[in-house]
Amino acid sequence: MKIAIVILNWNGYELLKTFLPSVVNHSGDNPVYIIDNNSNDKSINFLNENYPNLKIIQNDNNYRYAKGYNEGLKHVNEDVFCLLNNDIEVTKGWLNPIVKEFESNKSLTVVQPKILDYKNKNKFEYAGAAGGFIDYYGYPYCRGRIFSEIEEDNGQYNNDIEIFWASGACFFIRKSVFNEVGGFDENFCNHMEEIDLCWRIENLNKNYKKRFIHKSIVYHLGGASLNYNDPKKLFYNIRNHKWMIIKNTNENILFNFNPFSVFKIITWITILFAFYNLFSLKFNHFIEILKGLFSVHGYKDGKKINLDNNYYLLRSNNKKPKHYVIYSIIYNYLILKKRKFSDLNKS
User: Fold this and answer.
1) Considering the entire predicted model, what is its pTM?
2) CATH number corresponding to 3-220
């Protein structure tokens, strides 16, 4: 089996110079593709001069993550895609355990390697760490990272397990499944596209497996496209979180009068978080949080969008499948003061 390593790039000349050599050197005869989102820097010239054998797919616009991959992957024919950020350094033999797993487990659809911090290689990296989960309210967390608390890698998660979502920074998926679920939801634009995709896979077929493979290791710079402290990141996270709940559960945001419904709880949490930022004098953060909160009713850039695409949960025979392990990660974090995945109550 060959894996197509597919790197999405937009004006990433400096990142490609730094990180592409490890990908080329450690990927064997697996083809490397660059999907370029209409860069206007030196990216394409650099690739043509230094890596003439790489396959370059040029999009005619900057379609960002979701649509950028959806468009580019139409031209990739390998059975398994590895969607790789352009700020990832890979390691020798990183593909071997993943190829072996895909070949031996036909129900396997999605894989994530161990993602460590490029700047501090003894620590997990924020975006994915050792595999992702969500709680009852749809808040994501990882083995090795809960909110901003990031653990050192001491081998505590050196076991292969099933996960709920895999990080989009280094995301392996079978082409057939990617096409079956319709690819990434392009309405999301930035952030949580991979979580939504994994949730749709879960809803589509419970026999499809997603796994974390600990012997595959990569290092992620992180924050290259949108810094983790950028207030705009809060907007996308809050907006897309609610869109994800609408799409993948049977929660009704408009006609649910239960004061303890998922959306009521999420709304109050978001409002409290907004005012915490206001009182901390983070005015731009406050504004972006409110914008994310009130953009949930299916509008994007002032236009009505279709959130009816890929509704797999809203079926009479599949009303409330259990998608979570921890009921509330916020309660565990703020009230119970649990900072590590290994400390969480898994009852």
Assistant:
1) 0.89
2) 3.90.550.10
